[in-house]
Amino acid sequence: AAQPSPGGSDDALLPAYPILPAPAPAPAHSRSGLMGGAAFGLGSVAAGQEAASTLNYSFSFGGYLTGSVALLAELWGGRHSDGDFRITNNKQGVSALYWLAPTLWTKGTVASASYRTYVDDFMLTEFHGAAFGIGVGWVFFQRSHFHVDARVSFSIEGYKNARDNVNASALEIGLFYF
After folding, report:
1. What spatial distance separates the first Cα and last Cα of the chain, rounded to whole Å?
2. Least-confidence region, from 3-7, 53-57, 118-122, 155-159
3. N or C terminus: fewer CB in 10 A for the chain?
C-alpha cells in the first residue's frame, strides 16, 4: 500500500516501506602499538658535482603515539658499485611519521650519517656528520596488520671535513607491519 506524501497531496504517493539512510562509510584503519618495516629501491647520492645511482634500503622500528603519529628508529642508506669503485652512504636516526590521509603519510628525520668511498676494498674517504630528511609515502595495498607502500625520500647531509654537502634521494617499495 502507498501513503500520502509529506506535503499532504494525494497526487504523489510514496512507497509503504520507509526510506533508509545511506550506510556510513567504513572507518579508516586504526593504527596503534608497535610497528616495523623494510623498504628497498633505487636512488642517487650526490656530493658537489659528482653523482651516482644507488641501490637503497631502509629499516624502521617504532610505535604509534596516536592513530596518526608514530615515532621510529631508522637505519637507511644506499650503495653504489662501479667495477672496483664503491660508495656507501648510511644514516641512523629518529623519524616522526604523520598520516595525512588513510593512505598517505609524510615523515621528517634527524640522523647521524656516514659517507665512504672505496677502491679495491681500500677506503679512500670517510666522513661522519648529520643528516636531515623528509619523505612521503602512498599505501597501495593494505590488510588488517600490514601495508605495502611506494615512497620517495630526500636527505641533505653535512660533514665537518667534507668540501661539499651530500644529497641523497630514493624511490622505494616498503612493507610495514603494525
Report:
1. 53
2. 3-7
3. N
